[in-house]
Structures are given as C-alpha cells and as structure tokens.
Amino acid sequence: MSRLPGWLSRLGTGVARAGERLEERRVRAEEAEGLDEPRPRSAEPADTPEPLPAVAKSPDGEAGSGASVPAPPAYAPAIAARPDPVAAVPWGIRVAAEVGWRLLVLAGALWVLMRAISSVQLVVFAFVAALLITALLQPTVSRLKRLGLPRGLATAVTFIAGFVIMGLVGWFVVWQVMENTDDLSNQVQRGIDELEKWLLDSPFHVTGDEINDIAKNLREAIGTNTEELTSAGLAGVTVMVEILTGILLAMFSTLFLLYDGKRIWRWTLKLVPASARPGVAGAGPRAWRTLTAYVRGTVIVALIDAVFIGIGIYFLDVPMAVPLAVFIFLFAFIPLVGAVISGALAVVVALVTQGVFTALMALVVVLAVQQIEGHVLQPFILGRAVRVHPLAVVLSVAAGGMVAGIGGAVVAVPLVAVTNTVVGYLRTHAQDNALQQAAAASAPEPAAGPQGDRA
C-alpha cells in the first residue's frame, strides 16, 4: 500500500503528457488550415468547447499518430467549383434548342391537323368550295338587299341564279366536247398520218418498220393493261359519286353561308379565347374582303383570258375553240400553272389538227394574252390587297398540289393571301395595344382639384 501513491502520480503524469501531445497536434492542424491562433486553454469558455480533430485509430483501438489524414498546405491553389451545366452551354445553342422544340411541337400539331383533314377531305373541299362561291355571290346578295328585297328572297335569287349559270357552263362544255369528238378524232388521225410522213422524210432516219413497231407496242400495252383500265373505269364511277356528293355539300353550305353568314361568324368567335377575341374579330372581316376581292378578280381575269384566247384560236380554225376557251377559264383558277396547262392544250390541239404554222400562231396568241394578263389585268383588277409574290405563288401551288391534288392547288393561293392579311392585321393590332399600354403607364396622374388641395 506504500507504493500506491507513487504509482498514481506516475499515471497522472503520463495522462497529462498525452493530453499535451494531443493539444500540440490540434494546434498544428489548425495552423496548417489557416485558422486563427489557438487561444490558451485557460481562456476558453466552458460552454463552447473546442472540438478535437478526428484521429484515426489503429485496429487495436489506440490512436496512432501516422493514421490521420493530413490537410493540404496553405500555398496549394484553390480548386474552382464546377459551373452550372445550363451556363456551360453557349447562348446560340440554347436559343436554337428553344426554337427547335417549339418548331417540333408546331410540326406535330400541323401533321395531326393534316391527318384529320385527309380523313374528311371531301367535306373540307366542299366547304372550301362553298366559301369561294359565297365570296363570289355575297356582293349580289348585299346589292339586292339594298334594293329592298328581304334577306331570304335575295339569298334564294342569288343562289338559284349562280348555280344555274354554273350548271349551264358545265353542260355547255360537255355538249361541245361530245359534238366535236368524232371530228376531233378524225383530225387527230390525219395529224398522226402527217406526223408519220414527216418522220419518214426527216433527217432523223426513221423507217416505216420502226414506226410500225411503235404502234404495235402501243397496241400490246393497251391489250395487256385491260384489267387496269377496267379498274380505273370502276374507280371513275366511285369518283363521280364522290364528286356529286361534294357538289351537294357545297350547295347546301353555300346556301347557309349566304343566308346566315354573320351569325355563323359570331358563333365561331365564341370558340376563340377572350384575350385574343378582339384581334380575331377585327381580322375576320378583312380576311373576308381579301377573299372576295381575290375570287372576283380571278373570275374577271379568267373570263378575259378565255374570251380573247378563244377568239384567237377560233379565227385560226382550231376545232373545239369554245370548249377550249371554257377550259382556259376553269384552269385560270390555278395561278401560273393553270394558264400554262390550258395554253399548252390549245397549242397541242392546233398542232395535231392544223399543223405547225397554226400551232405557232396559237402559241403567239396564248403568250400575248397571258403577258397582258400578268402585267396589266392582275395588278389593276386584283390590286395590292391580294398581291402575292410570284415565288410564294409557285411554292404554294406546288405544295397544295402535292398535298391535295388539283383542289389543293386551287385553294393554295387564296389561303396564302388570306393568311397574309390576317397576320399583318394581328401584328399591327398587337403593336397598337403595346403602344396604348405604354402611353397609359407613362401618363402623369391627374392633379388634385381645389377641393382636394383644401382637404
């Protein structure tokens, strides 16, 4: 028991020395990390004890001096934080991505719309034809109403007269074609014989056997494709049924548009969001005026083309001059392309029936009338309201023809003209609203009156 106090004294001394060594290590670690100078132990508050650094232990549980992770030195360069991935993308690429996904959404919506239209293509074409016919007949209804006729009577008179005239024109074309078919076939046969003689005497060294082989191949091709021709004839019957159905739909739609067009337009406006309703309400009448001016101008220009080209080929003794003039009138509703097709048809008929000289003279007549139409009639009759750039006309007609055939080519240009009018008005309307809001925001508040000053 006499040795116990000495042992306790040595144990206390060892614990004290171990604590001093731990404190020295903590101080060196804080200095290496760039921290403030450590305060003396006596000055440390009792309620905020300084945390000791984590010390790794050896497997036997004792603290080891070489197991702790050293801190980086003070002179080591700082490691910059990684930037935000959005900030790392260049501005141009971000703008292109934003525009790109919006264009993809619009393209998808347009594709869905086109698929929906193609599934009810007959109804859509019938309604569009009704819109065009209504744009042509609506001024007559308004004029009859100003003369004192009731709305129903004015609509009925205009509707019956318009469709009777269109029916007579169609019957006249069919009658002329049926009357002149035999004469035309005989003249075509004579033209083919003359062409065969010219090929035999031409410098191309074409022999009679080669011409006979070509004729034999044509006959064999017609004989082997009899089934295809028969199926085409059956398909033609189906097409005729669809055409009659479309004509009936167009007639009923035209009747209701002429009689109740304003009420239908007001109902359509209720489907538009309230915030966009004022702009759409203002753009609608302007679009209708553009469509009306386009249809009336196109009818007048087509009528002038048909009359003058028909007179020219009539004096050149080209057969079926009147039906060809009617075809020229109908094809004039397809801008640029229709004039080329109808003029080429007249020239080909003149070539086959009357020879090369007559065909050249017919070509001169067609080109002269079309030049007068393009440079004088269209700018004067159609005006600037429906003027569309020729490149836009060509591209729209080509796109409409690829999407929906002849009907799409007919509708393409008036659709582009109406869209141009609507977009222009909406842009002007938005600018006017922005200017009015800016003026209202910058206007000074009204000064208080005498009573407000006394108060």
From TrEMBL:
Residues 19-44 have a biased composition (Basic and acidic residues). Its main location: membrane. It is a multi-pass membrane protein. It comes from the Bacteria. It is found in: Cell membrane. Residues 19-69 are annotated as: Disordered. One of its GO terms (biological process) is transmembrane transport. Keywords: Cell membrane, Membrane, Transmembrane, Transmembrane helix, Transport. GO terms for cellular component: plasma membrane. The chain crosses the membrane at residues 153-174, 234-259, 293-315, 321-341, 348-372, 392-418. Belongs to the autoinducer-2 exporter (AI-2E) (TC 2.A.86) family. This is Predicted PurR-regulated permease PerM. It comes from Streptomyces indicus.
